[in-house]
Write a structure and sequence with these properties.
Helices cover 50% and strands 12% of the residues. By secondary structure, the chain is of the alpha/beta class. Strand 4 (195-198) and strand 5 (204-215) form a beta hairpin.
């Protein structure tokens, strides 16, 4: 149950909720404030739940599968303002301000429509101009930050390749940020941290990209994250770092499964450095593979000096690699399906990236407790 109003009603109607609330009936505002205020403390409980699962013999780390799903933000895509539209509105409002000032200068007020107050109309437009200017400033700052980060990442990749090969990379070095802002760059006026993203079934909506690393076998979520990027390519490294930071008492992650959306040379090398064996699809999987491909003999192993990407490509072609990778689709996707369709979590209640991160952490922890109950009843 996610709604604070529904929880408040349940403290009257449900014996279980009355027991949990010690027969008190906190107001829905109190419940909502409690959740928002204590998100950092609740986040620390995520690992405590995993420790409990390990103690009960339910959690076994070893192979984990990574995936992401789009979850609607607490904002409408119709509240989004693009940079190009903001500039058009700005020009229109400035013209209207000039027209109103001219009207105010006229000695004869006969041309002023009944009920119209020029000072109020001017004040309204000045407020909208200030809001548009602030929105444009945020879009410009966001684009500048993103382009600078991409530029630094390209430089780092180029330098790392030069260090590894001992040769200067070919081609032109990456160009520095141009500072140009595209007309389609936009910001949402309700939740400015959310982004327009493609959603299942087609179309676009205001969303966050929720990430999870799920242990095969138990289907317990062992790491979670939330991002503004619609693409999964940059999300593997943060999840791998979370997995490495888990307490040693939980065991060690030996391999990570992910679809082709996570594939990049940098991601494969990051896994190798973390001493986690990556199995990331090299391309989109084809349905109905030919029988010769399914029963083909394992190819010859690459030399020890081969790159991590080359070694992973070989692993994916072996019978063992194919069997392991087959676990990817049946591991995180059922978890997301239950969270959305059974638990009913399809939209964030809180706004802002950090608040939504805390809410996603609470939801994944709730899933783990639910899953532990199911495992204990089996």
């Amino acid at each position: 149950m996610f709604s604070s109003r529904a929880i408040e009603r349940a403290t009257y109607d449900s014996v279980a909720f009355r027991f949990i609330a010690a027969n008190e009936h906190p107001d829905h505002d109190t419940i909502a404030s409690f959740r928002k205020r204590f998100l950092p403390q609740i986040q620390a409980l995520f690992v405590e739940v995993l420790k409990l699962a390990r103690t009960m013999g339910m959690l076994k780390l070893g192979t984990v599968a990574l995936d992401g799903t789009k979850i609607h933000a607490n904002a409408s895509r119709h509240s989004a303002l693009s940079y190009g539209h903001a500039r058009k509105l700005e020009k229109q409002l400035k013209r209207e301000v000039q027209q109103l000032l001219k009207l105010a200068e006229q000695a004869d007020a006969a041309d002023i429509p009944d009920g119209m107050s020029i000072p109020e109309e001017l004040e309204r437009r000045e407020a909208r101009l200030a809001a548009i200017a602030e929105a444009k400033r945020k879009i410009e700052a966001r684009v500048a930050e993103r382009e600078q980060a991409e530029y630094q990442a390209k430089l780092a990749t180029r330098a790392e390749r030069e260090k590894r090969t001992g040769k200067k990379p070919g081609g032109r070095p990456p160009a520095p940020p141009s500072g140009m802002i595209g007309d389609k760059e936009q910001i949402n006026l309700t939740d400015e941290d959310s982004r327009i993203m493609p959603v299942a079934g087609g179309g676009f909506d205001q969303c966050y990209n929720a990430q999870a690393a799920v242990a095969t076998g138990s289907l317990l979520i062992v790491a979670n994250d939330l991002t503004q990027a619609a693409n999964d390519k940059q999300q593997l490294a943060p999840l791998i770092d979370q997995l490495k930071a888990l307490p040693k008492t939980l065991g060690r992650v030996k391999r990570a499964l992910a679809d082709s959306g996570y594939l990049s040379e940098a991601n494969v090398e990051h896994c190798a450095q973390a001493k986690i064996e990556p199995l990331i699809a090299m391309k989109r999987e084809r349905h109905n593979a030919r029988w010769k491909e399914r029963f083909a003999e394992d190819p010859k192993a690459p030399p020890e000096s081969a790159s991590p990407m080359c070694k992973m490509a070989h692993r994916l072609k072996t019978k063992r690699g194919k069997k392991l990778y087959a676990l990817r689709k049946q591991t995180p996707e059922p978890v997301f399906g239950v969270i959305k369709s059974v638990m009913g979590f399809r939209q964030f209640l809180l706004r802002g990236l950090e608040n939504a991160k805390g809410e996603w952490n609470l939801v994944t922890m709730s899933w783990n407790i639910r899953r532990m109950f199911a495992l204990g009843s089996a």
